[in-house]
Amino acid sequence: MDSCIGVEQDLDKAISKFNGLQEHTNKCLEDIIQQIEELKKEIANQPSDSALSQEQAAAVSELATSVKQNVFQLSTDHRDLHATVSRVGKSIDRHFIADYASVAPKAESFLSETNRPIMEQAIAQHLYRQGLEEAGDALVAEAGLGPVERTCTFAALQRCAGALADGDPAPALAWARQHAPQLGHSPLPFTLHRMQALKLGREAGVGAAIEYARREFPAHAARHERALQAAVCALAWCAQGSPPPPHNYRHLLDPKALGAEAAEMFIREACALLRLAPLSPLAGAVLAGARVLPALHDIRAKMTHPHVVAAWSDEDLPLEVTLTFMPHLHSRTSREARREARCEVELGEEGGGYHSVFACPILRQQASEQNPPMRLLCGHVISRDALNKLAMGVKLKCPYCPMEQSPSEARQIYFS
Ligand SMILES: [Zn+2]
Questions:
Q1: Does residue 283 contact residue 126 with C-beta atoms inside 8 Å?
Q2: What is the pLDDT of residue 229?
Q3: Gap from CA of 398 to ligand 1 centroid (Å)
Q4: How far is the CA of 400 from the centre of ligand 1 (A)?
């Protein structure tokens, strides 16, 4: 936040200088124009073939000199302005850390024989999911990628959403019809029918819209009574040449706003129904990475503290660590500190739902099919190997809360 305030101060300085110069420049130019206009008028009043009087000639040359001087001054001021603007750039460099290299994966790690195809597939998949099929095809062809699922479900959804944003609800309506039984409690079908009715009202006349509404609206009357009434009333302003609609119907009669809203709802509802993540794996990874990066950078900075260096000889960044564990480090062994040093970085609503690979907090090993994560009765999760090691016959004491339980009560956790 301090960084933002610092840059803002420099930016304010630049803006006020810019505004001051603009005012000054405009005033100078107006003065010059006025003087020229006056002189022009005076000369124009003379007969066309008469020579200029001595005073007039002097006035012309005086004015020319003054114009030259003014233009020179203005261009000097303008040059100074560049210096102020470039100071803002330097201020940004000074206030923000540009070097995330110590915590970000190295670019070369994407170029290895194993990772490169995965990365390219992820990019192609992302392009298809965004509905950018031509760009996806070009990438697949030029990079010589293996088959990438081209007509993936999300691409089809994206096409429907795109049509909605362009004001055409037909593809989305066809999709909703196919999934009608699962959309029983969703506001989506009504939203789409309402959009279609209003579109008909604009394009085919109010009669056609009312006919459509009679056919499609009754099924939604109970759940969307008020919205339905508003939509029918809005039809009154659909006809060409109607007076401007009252404020509360304006939104319904704005096809762009209605389309954008329907597109957003469509993607949300369809993804929920098909249990799809609304973001592509690549977009999700980028979003999560961007959120986590500042925290990792802070951790990396703290890791260089002499106490921490002594306790932690690993080169790897302990991703599970938060800064809150730092005070304990002085008095505890590194192993104890590691146990305490677990946290999650909040990814927020849109970035939520992603989880890292599970690493056992006891054995510090990544979970695998042979050694899956196990949820204890108390809710704590450890790996199966750790569970077997900690179990004493039919008894197990949770290493976090001292709850006693039977090892057989632990349940395996599946990440899907
Ligand atoms: Zn426990």
A1: yes
A2: 87
A3: 5
A4: 5
